[in-house]
Amino acid sequence: MAALGLAALAGLTLWGAWSIPQGPGFSAVGPRDFPLVLSGTLALLALAAVVQALRGKIPDEAHNPEEPPLPGARARMGWMLAGMLFAPLGLHLFGFFAGGVIGFATVARSFGAKSWPAITGWAIAATLVVWLLFDKVLTLKLGNELLRLPF
Fold first, then answer.
1. Per-residue DSSP letters for the chain?
2. Is pLDDT larger for residue 2 or for residue 83?
3. Do the domain assignments include residue 142?
4. pTM beyond 0.90, yes or no
5. How many domains does the chain have?
Protein backbone atom coordinates (compact mmCIF):
# COMPACT_ATOMS: atom_id res chain seq x y z
CA MET A 1 0.00 0.00 0.00
CA ALA A 2 2.84 2.39 0.80
CA ALA A 3 4.46 1.62 -2.55
CA LEU A 4 1.25 2.58 -4.35
CA GLY A 5 1.07 5.79 -2.32
CA LEU A 6 4.65 6.56 -3.30
CA ALA A 7 3.81 5.90 -6.94
CA ALA A 8 0.81 8.24 -6.72
CA LEU A 9 3.00 10.92 -5.16
CA ALA A 10 5.54 10.46 -7.95
CA GLY A 11 2.82 10.87 -10.55
CA LEU A 12 1.60 14.04 -8.84
CA THR A 13 5.10 15.53 -8.69
CA LEU A 14 5.74 14.67 -12.35
CA TRP A 15 2.50 16.39 -13.32
CA GLY A 16 3.42 19.42 -11.21
CA ALA A 17 6.92 19.59 -12.67
CA TRP A 18 5.60 19.47 -16.25
CA SER A 19 3.26 22.36 -15.47
CA ILE A 20 6.18 24.69 -14.66
CA PRO A 21 6.88 26.99 -17.63
CA GLN A 22 10.29 26.42 -19.17
CA GLY A 23 11.08 30.10 -19.60
CA PRO A 24 13.05 31.88 -22.32
CA GLY A 25 15.00 29.76 -24.77
CA PHE A 26 18.45 31.27 -24.19
CA SER A 27 19.45 28.61 -21.66
CA ALA A 28 19.56 24.83 -22.05
CA VAL A 29 18.53 24.37 -18.41
CA GLY A 30 15.32 26.01 -17.28
CA PRO A 31 13.27 26.22 -14.10
CA ARG A 32 11.38 23.02 -14.92
CA ASP A 33 14.44 20.77 -15.27
CA PHE A 34 15.47 20.25 -11.64
CA PRO A 35 11.92 19.40 -10.46
CA LEU A 36 11.65 16.99 -13.40
CA VAL A 37 14.88 15.24 -12.39
CA LEU A 38 13.71 14.94 -8.78
CA SER A 39 10.22 13.73 -9.66
CA GLY A 40 11.62 11.32 -12.26
CA THR A 41 13.96 9.86 -9.64
CA LEU A 42 11.03 9.53 -7.25
CA ALA A 43 9.04 7.78 -9.99
CA LEU A 44 11.85 5.27 -10.59
CA LEU A 45 12.15 4.55 -6.87
CA ALA A 46 8.36 4.21 -6.61
CA LEU A 47 8.36 1.76 -9.51
CA ALA A 48 11.07 -0.29 -7.80
CA ALA A 49 9.06 -0.25 -4.57
CA VAL A 50 5.90 -1.42 -6.36
CA VAL A 51 7.81 -4.26 -8.05
CA GLN A 52 9.34 -5.33 -4.73
CA ALA A 53 5.95 -5.15 -3.01
CA LEU A 54 4.33 -7.29 -5.72
CA ARG A 55 7.09 -9.86 -5.27
CA GLY A 56 6.43 -9.86 -1.53
CA LYS A 57 9.94 -8.73 -0.65
CA ILE A 58 9.01 -5.64 1.36
CA PRO A 59 8.22 -6.59 4.96
CA ASP A 60 5.52 -4.71 6.84
CA GLU A 61 7.51 -2.89 9.51
CA ALA A 62 4.34 -1.84 11.32
CA HIS A 63 3.97 -5.45 12.53
CA ASN A 64 7.63 -6.14 13.30
CA PRO A 65 7.77 -7.59 16.85
CA GLU A 66 11.54 -7.02 17.11
CA GLU A 67 11.29 -3.26 16.58
CA PRO A 68 8.11 -1.67 17.97
CA PRO A 69 6.98 1.77 16.77
CA LEU A 70 8.42 4.82 18.45
CA PRO A 71 6.45 5.99 21.49
CA GLY A 72 4.34 9.12 21.32
CA ALA A 73 3.22 8.78 17.71
CA ARG A 74 0.31 11.19 18.17
CA ALA A 75 2.51 13.88 19.71
CA ARG A 76 5.09 13.42 16.94
CA MET A 77 2.41 13.83 14.29
CA GLY A 78 1.08 16.85 16.15
CA TRP A 79 4.49 18.55 16.02
CA MET A 80 4.83 17.73 12.33
CA LEU A 81 1.37 19.12 11.54
CA ALA A 82 2.06 22.22 13.64
CA GLY A 83 5.16 22.85 11.58
CA MET A 84 3.26 22.37 8.34
CA LEU A 85 0.66 24.90 9.49
CA PHE A 86 2.75 27.52 11.28
CA ALA A 87 5.93 27.59 9.17
CA PRO A 88 4.13 29.05 6.12
CA LEU A 89 2.31 31.48 8.41
CA GLY A 90 5.62 32.60 9.94
CA LEU A 91 7.09 32.87 6.46
CA HIS A 92 4.21 35.06 5.30
CA LEU A 93 4.08 37.30 8.39
CA PHE A 94 7.72 37.60 9.46
CA GLY A 95 9.86 36.51 6.49
CA PHE A 96 11.99 33.51 5.61
CA PHE A 97 13.89 33.41 8.89
CA ALA A 98 10.83 32.92 11.12
CA GLY A 99 9.21 30.38 8.81
CA GLY A 100 12.43 28.42 8.48
CA VAL A 101 13.12 28.32 12.21
CA ILE A 102 9.55 27.21 12.95
CA GLY A 103 9.75 24.54 10.26
CA PHE A 104 13.13 23.14 11.29
CA ALA A 105 12.28 23.26 15.02
CA THR A 106 8.95 21.47 14.74
CA VAL A 107 10.42 18.76 12.51
CA ALA A 108 13.28 18.25 14.98
CA ARG A 109 10.79 18.01 17.84
CA SER A 110 8.65 15.53 15.91
CA PHE A 111 11.71 13.32 15.44
CA GLY A 112 12.33 13.25 19.18
CA ALA A 113 14.63 16.18 19.99
CA LYS A 114 14.00 17.27 23.59
CA SER A 115 16.16 20.29 24.39
CA TRP A 116 14.49 23.51 23.22
CA PRO A 117 17.71 25.56 23.37
CA ALA A 118 19.46 22.99 21.17
CA ILE A 119 16.47 22.71 18.83
CA THR A 120 16.30 26.49 18.47
CA GLY A 121 20.05 26.85 17.91
CA TRP A 122 20.13 24.17 15.23
CA ALA A 123 16.99 25.55 13.59
CA ILE A 124 18.51 29.04 13.43
CA ALA A 125 21.76 27.65 12.02
CA ALA A 126 19.98 25.50 9.42
CA THR A 127 17.75 28.39 8.35
CA LEU A 128 20.71 30.73 7.93
CA VAL A 129 22.67 28.11 5.96
CA VAL A 130 19.72 27.53 3.60
CA TRP A 131 19.18 31.27 3.16
CA LEU A 132 22.88 31.96 2.54
CA LEU A 133 23.11 29.07 0.10
CA PHE A 134 20.16 30.26 -1.96
CA ASP A 135 20.67 34.02 -1.64
CA LYS A 136 24.45 34.33 -1.85
CA VAL A 137 25.68 31.19 -3.62
CA LEU A 138 22.83 30.46 -6.04
CA THR A 139 21.67 34.12 -6.15
CA LEU A 140 18.04 33.05 -5.88
CA LYS A 141 15.78 35.18 -3.70
CA LEU A 142 13.68 33.40 -1.08
CA GLY A 143 11.18 36.19 -0.62
CA ASN A 144 12.06 39.83 -0.42
CA GLU A 145 13.96 39.74 2.84
CA LEU A 146 15.32 37.47 5.53
CA LEU A 147 13.32 39.10 8.34
CA ARG A 148 10.40 41.52 8.25
CA LEU A 149 7.88 43.01 10.63
CA PRO A 150 4.19 42.39 9.86
CA PHE A 151 3.24 46.05 10.24
1. -HHHHHHHHHHHHHHHHHTS----TT-SS-TTHHHHHHHHHHHHHHHHHHHHHHTT-S--GGG-TTSPPPS-HHHHHHHHHHHHHHHHHHHHHH-HHHHHHHHHHHHHHHTT---HHHHHHHHHHHHHHHHHIIIIIS---SSS-S-----
2. 83
3. no
4. no
5. 2
